[in-house]
Amino acid sequence: MNFIPIKTRVFRLPQDDIYKLLDESATDLCDGDLLCVTSKILAIAQGRCIKIGESVNKHAITKKEADWFHPQTVKAGRREVMLTIKDHTLIPSAGIDESNGNGYYVLWPRHTNRLLREIWLYLKKKHGLRRLGLIATDSHTIPLRRGVVGISTGFWGFTPLLDRRGSKDIFGRKLKMTRSNIVDAVAAAAVLVMGEGREKIPFVICRGMGKVHFNSQDNYRGFIIDKKSDLYRPILKGFKRA
């Protein structure tokens, strides 16, 4: 398995053409690839940018963008941060980011899976591919751990889980609950390759990933867990619907 970085030109804010960028840069796609795309690129393609100014209140934007938010803000260095749930992801400030924003707040894209499907159809036709997966990525933090790690914010073209239920462990005991999360594992590695600064690597190809079931279905509903049914619901119950 290889993770192949794709270096590009600067994607211009507040809006640019992602299809032109793909035509310029993602020229080496092969059948069976998983293409990881940073969510910031997807958002800029949709024009999801707000110019930073004195009249712009980030907390107000966060509440508008979030699906759920925690009413108690927390300190992150000198800043106050609002904890939110956006697109079934626990993320500070609904994913709103200033880094590499050139004076803009960059929001998360709208209808990420729908947008990925459009790009997936375009790339399959352009490159004559039968099997292709797309993953939108971003960075987030994990409770009780320092540092950021990649996570998926959407995907299309493949089944995100590898179901290991019914298989046996090394002592012959049948696994009853284990399902491996392929999409977030790939996203974490891809974001590490993308970097967090001035690398200009918004695309990473994951090539040679075994045990991926490619399809054209909407697999998202079977992937997510409602927060009322989640194992971590005692922690999540403090969030209010935005």
Description:
The structure is a single chain. With 242 residues, the protein is an alpha+beta fold. The protein has a single domain (2-48, 110-234), classed as 60s Ribosomal Protein L30, Chain: A, CATH 3.30.1330.100. It is 23% helix and 27% strand. The protein is built from six helices and 15 strands. It has helices at 18-25, 39-45, 58-65, 112-127, 182-194, 233-236; strands at residues 2-6, 33-38, 49-51, 68-69, 74-76, 79-81, 83-86, 89-92, 104-106, 132-141, 148-156, 161-163, 179-181, 203-207, 240-241. Strands 1-14-2-10-11 form a five-stranded mixed β-sheet. The protein has a four-stranded antiparallel β-sheet with strand order 8-7-4-15, with helices on one face. The protein has a two-stranded antiparallel sheet with strand order 3-9. A hairpin with a 2-residue loop joins strand 5 and strand 6. The radius of gyration is 19 Å and the shape is globular. The chain starts with a strand and ends with a strand. The mean pLDDT is 93.
